[in-house]
Amino acid sequence: MLDVLSFPFMQHALVATFLISICIGIVGSLVVVNRMVFLAGGIAHGSYGGIGLAIYFGLLPLFGATLFSLLLAIIIAAVSYKDKERIDPIIGTMWAAGMALGIIFTDLTPGYNVDLMSYLFGSIISVSTRDLYIMTGFDLLILILVSFYHKELLALSFDKEFARLRGVKVKPLYYLLLIMIAFSVIVTIRAVGLILVIALMSIPTYIAEKFSASLYKMMFISSILTFIFSLIGLFLSYYFDISSGATIILVASFVFFIFSIIFKR
Questions:
Q1: In angstroms, how far apart are the furthest CA atoms of the chain?
Q2: How confident is the prediction along the chain (265 residues), in pLDDT tens digits per residue?
Q3: How many CA atoms lie within 13 Å of 229's alpha carbon, on the beta-carbon side?
Q4: Closest by Cα among 196, 223, 250, 183 to 41
Q5: What does the CA dihedral 102, 108, 109, 114 come to, rounded to 10 degrees?
Q6: d(C-alpha 66, C-alpha 71), whole Å
Q7: Are 199 and 86 in contact (CB under 8 A)?
Q8: Closest Cα to residue 126, out of 244, 232, 249?
């Protein structure tokens, strides 16, 4: 079993698994606590438009996804902060429009890009050294932001009005949170793809929430669970020659269902 670790692509995949677990543990916890799963889904799926545009203009797909994710994060933050009651149809429209835009520009691009499927459904074993550098950069940025604004994010997550009364600048912090979600999408996209990123962002955190008395403990446990799920999914996908992204999510989903049955109240 350990022989497979001698392959460079497997070594890259293991590093990517570690980097993803950090990002998901931190941002996923903030997403679940703030009930932003649907908003995160809008950013993740809508960013496919950036991938399609990047492919059409001959640019790096992750570059297009990054710009599009940040743009969507800012737009969604502006809309949802002002009017949360009508946000669902707006997010749904942006979700669908981004996907449609990406499909159209991909169709307009001469030839067929096989690597495109890895951005939709994930392929952690195809992560390159450049991808690892990008993932590391976003991970470090998330860690710095959360470390610097940890008290403010904690206040925002549990009581927005109380945070405002304590002098916390809630609106800029809300924008920052959506931007960090965009960062996490970029980190995770190569592992499980845009289609499944929300599942990985929420499942480990839902489980971790039951064992956590604090947000920071939730982040830690969620990171550990994400790493375990991704590691198991990685080896299963390799030995059975199946999609790594889908396998990781199936592992996480299986554990979630077992957990739900055992700890059902």
A1: 58
A2: 556 777 788 889 999 999 999 999 999 999 999 888 888 888 988 898 999 898 888 888 888 999 999 999 999 888 888 766 667 787 888 888 888 998 898 888 887 555 667 787 778 888 889 889 999 999 999 999 999 998 888 888 877 777 777 777 888 999 999 999 999 998 888 778 887 888 899 999 999 988 888 888 999 999 999 999 999 999 998 888 888 888 999 999 999 999 988 877 5
A3: 33
A4: 196
A5: 60
A6: 9
A7: no
A8: 244
Residue with tokens 């996923």: 28
- For residues 51 and 63, what is the distance between their CA atoms, to the nearest angstrom? 8
User: What's this model's pTM, rounded to 2 decimal places?
Assistant: 0.90
- Give φ, ψ of 19 to 5 degrees: -65, -40
Class of domain 2-262: mainly alpha
Report the distance separating Cα 80 and Cα 83, nearest Å: 5
Cα(240)–Cα(168) distance, integer angstroms: 51
| 49: phi then psi, degrees, rounded to nearest 5 | -60, -40
Q: Which of 22, 43, 28 is nearest to 203 (CA)?
A: 28
Q: Where are the domains of the chain?
A: 2-262
Q: Integer distance in angstroms from the first to the last C-alpha of the chain?
A: 39
The encoded tokens of residue 34 equal: 């703030």
Residue 11 CB contacts under 8 Å (≥ 6 apart), including other chains: 5
- CA 1, 22, 45, 133 dihedral sign is negative
Distance CA 42, CA 91 (A): 6
CA–CA dist 115, 61 (Å, integer): 10
Distance CA 221, CA 207 (A): 9
